Amino acid sequence: MTGPTDTNGRTVASLRELPQSIEPARDLWPGIESQLTALPAQDSAQGAGPGYRRALRLRWLAAAAMLSCLAVGIWIGRSLLPGAAVGHLPPSTASRSTVPGLAPTALDAAYVSDPRYERQRRALVRALQERLAVLPPPARAKVTASLAAIEKAKKDLEGALGQDPGNALLQELLINTYQDEMRVLTDVHEASDSGRGI
Amino acid sequence: MVHAQAEETRVDWESALVQRARGGDRRAFERLYREHVGRVYGLCLRMTRDAQLAEDCTQDTFINAWRALGKFETRSSLSTWLHRIAVNVSLARRRKSGPVEPLPAEEQETAAEWTLETPVEVQELENAIGALPEGARDALVLHALYGYSHGEAARMLGIAEGTCKAQLHRARRLLRERLGMEVN
Amino acid sequence: MRIALSLTLALLPLLAATTASASSDKTFDQQVPAQPRGVVEISNVSGSIQVSGWERNDVSVHAELDAGVERVDVSSDGGRTTIKVIVAHSSSDGGEARLQVKIPKDSELNVSAVNADLTSSGVLGVQHLSAVSGNITAELGGADGELKTVSGDLRLKAHGLPARLHVSTVSGDVYLEHGAGDLEASTVNGTLILSLDGARSVRARTTAGDVRFEGKLTRGATLEASTVSGDLNVRASAEGGYAYEVSSFSGDITDCFNASPERVSKYGPGSRLEGTRGEGAGHLRLKTMSGDVQLCDRP
C-alpha cells in the first residue's frame, strides 16, 4: 500500500500536527476539465461580462494565427510547445515538403500557414497605415517601433534557421514572434476603433 | 488593517468564485480546485491508502462538486463541503471493491487531543494510521487530523455518533499497540 | 424688450447648470447610487482617469474639463453605471477630461481610454483596463484582471492574493509587485519586471526586451519565459522544487547551482541547461535566441 510520504525525518507530538494538505504528484486539473467538458449544459462558460466580450471582439484572429502556428509546430515536437493541443493535429498537416524523408526547412515553415490566418493578416497589414493614422502621435511612433522590432526578430530568427533548420528553439521563438505580430496588429485595429470615438 | 482587509477579501473572493463557477465559469472553478486540491487529496489518500485511487477520488470529488454547486450554500465552508463529497466518493469506491467490515459496538469515547507520549517521525505515524482497519482509520482521519467533531465525522461516514466514537476508541488502542506508546 | 430680458435672466440658471459649454474650462460633479457588486464602465478619449474604491454604494464623478469636451454622461441602471466623456471636437483640439471617480469597492471595473493615463486603487472586483496611449497604474485586490495598453507602461501592485492576470503592452514596460496566482504578461520591446509571492503559472514573453522575475512558485507551478533578443533573469524558489530547462541559441547561460550548460551541437551555436531542484514538482522553461539567461533558486 502507498500513502503519504515524508522523507524529511520530521517528528510530531500529536496527530493534529500531521499535514492536512498533500499535493498530488501531478496536476489533476486537465483530467477534471476534460470530464467537465463532456458534461451537458453546465460546461458553458459565461465569462465575466461585457468587459470580456468587448476585449474578445477580434480574438478569433489570434485563434487563426494559433492554428497556423500549431500546424508549423507539429514537426517541432510536442514537448516544446505550451499546451496539449499540438498532439491533436494529424501529422500530415505539418509540412508541404514534397520530398519524402527530407526534414522541413525554415522556408517550408514560412509557407505552412492556415489560409484564414494569411488572409486576415494581409487584411490587417493593408489597413495598418490607415489605422496608425488615427492613433495619437506618441502611440503611433511607439507602435511603429514595435513592429520594426518584430520584423527584425523575424529576420534574425529566419536567418538563424537558415543555418540550422532543425533547431526547435528557433522554430518555437519564430512561432511566438508571428503570434506577437498578430497580437500587435489586432491591438492596433481595436485601438484605432477607440481612437475614432468611443 | 491591511491584513484584516486581505482576510475579508479572501472570503469574498471565494464566494465570488463559487458564484461564477455556478454560472458555468470553469476558470473560476479551476481557481477553487487549486485552492482546495491539497486538502481533498490528503483526505482521499489517507482513506484509500493508494496514490492512484486517491487521484481518482480527488478527480471524482471535484467533478461531483461541479455538478452539485447549485446546492452549496455559500455561508458554509467550501472546504468541509468538498470533504463530505470526498468521503462519499471514497466510501462508494470501497463498497464496490469488497465486503464492508462489521461495525463495533457503540461506545462513549472521551475527548482527546491525540497527543503522543513521545514525538514520532511523520512517516512512521502515517504508516501506523494506514495500517488501521478502514472504519477506524476513516474516523481517526476525519476527527483527529481534519478536526471534525464526532457528530460531523459520523454524518460524513453515514454512521451513528456512538459508532464513530467506538471506531476512534479502537483506533487509539491499535495505534498504542503499533507505536508502543500511549496516545492521549 | 422687458420680456426678452426676463426670459434671458430666467434661463441663466439653466445655462449654468448644464454639464458643459464649449466656451471655457469647467468642472463637473455628479453622484449616482450603484449596486455594491455592480459593473462600472468608464470611457475617456483624452486626459486621465483615476478610480478609487470606497465603502459607499454610490458612484461619484468629479471631472475637470477642457474646452472641447462637450459633456460627461453618467447613467446608472440595473447594476451597471456608465460614465462617458463626449468630445465636441477631435482629440487633437485638446478636449481633455481629467476624471476622478469613486466606486463601490467590490465593483467590476471596465475602463477604456485613448490618450489618457489610468489609475485604480482600492478596487477589489475584476478589472478590465485598456488604454491606447497611456500608462496604467493599478492596485489589484485579488480578483482577475485584464490590463492592456498599446504604448504605455503598466505598474501593478497586488497584495499576494491569487488571481488570474493578463497584462500586455506593445511597447511599454510591465512592473508587477506582490502578484500571486496565474499571470500572462507580454510586451514587444519593453521590459517585464515581475515579483510574485505565490505563482501557480507564469507566462512571460517579450520580443526585444528583458524579463526579470523574482519570487516564489507554489508546489507544481509552471513558469515559462521567452524572448528573442532580450535577457532573462529569473530568481525563483518553489515549494517542492522544480525541473528546469533553459535554452539560448547564441547567448550565455549562468546559474547559481554550479550546473554547467551543455552545447546543443558540436558544430553550431546553442546551449542548454536542464536539471532539477528539490523534488522537481514544478516546471520552469526559459528560452531566448540571442539573450543571456541567469537562473537561481534563491533571492
Provide tags for this entry.
heterotrimer; A: 198 residues; mainly alpha; 8 helices; C: 299 residues; mainly beta; 2 domains; seven-stranded parallel beta barrel; 60% strand; elongated
Put simply, the count of helices of chain B is 8
Q: Name the shape of chain B in a single word.
A: elongated
Kindly give the count of domains of chain A. 1
The CATH level-2 architecture of the largest domain in chain B is identified as: Orthogonal Bundle
Low-confidence stretches of chain B: 1-9
- Please give the count of helices of chain A: 8
Q: What's the average pLDDT of chain B?
A: 84
Oligomer: heterotrimer
Strand content of chain B: under 5%
The average pLDDT of chain A is 66
What is the rounded Rg of chain B?
18 Å
**Main structural class of chain B:** mainly alpha
Order of helices and strands of chain A: EHHHHHHHH
Q: Radius of gyration of chain A over alpha carbons?
A: 23 Å
Describe the structure.
The complex is a heterotrimer of chains A (198), B (184) and C (299). Chain A is an all-alpha fold. Chain A has helices spanning 29-38, 50-55, 59-73, 106-111, 115-126, 128-134, 137-163, 168-195; one strand at residues 11-14. In chain A, α3 runs antiparallel to α8 and α7 (137-163) runs antiparallel to α8. Chain A is elongated and about 70 Å long. With 184 residues, chain B is mainly α. Chain B folds into 2 domains: 2-97, Rna Polymerase Sigma Factor, Chain: A (Orthogonal Bundle); 122-179, Arc Repressor Mutant, subunit A, CATH 1.10.10.10. Chain B has helices at 2-22, 26-48, 51-68, 78-97, 122-130, 134-145, 150-157, 161-179; one strand spanning 115-121. In chain B, α2 crosses α3, α5 crosses α8 and α6 packs across α7 (150-157). Chain B is elongated, with a radius of gyration of 18 Å. Chain C has 299 residues and is mainly β. Chain C folds into 2 domains: 27-115, no CATH class; 140-299, no CATH class. Chain C has a 7-stranded parallel beta barrel with strand order 7-8-10-12-13-11-9. In chain C, β19 and β20 (271-277) form a beta hairpin. Chain C starts with a helix and ends with a strand. Chain A binds chain B through residues 1-16, 18-26, 28-29, 31-33, 35-36, 39, 42-48, and chain B through 20, 23-27, 29-30, 33-34, 37-39, 41-42, 45-46, 49-51, 54-55, 58-59, 62-63, 66-67, 113-116, 118-123, 125-127, 129-130, 140, 144-147, 183. β1 of chain A pairs antiparallel with β1 of chain B, so a sheet runs across the interface.
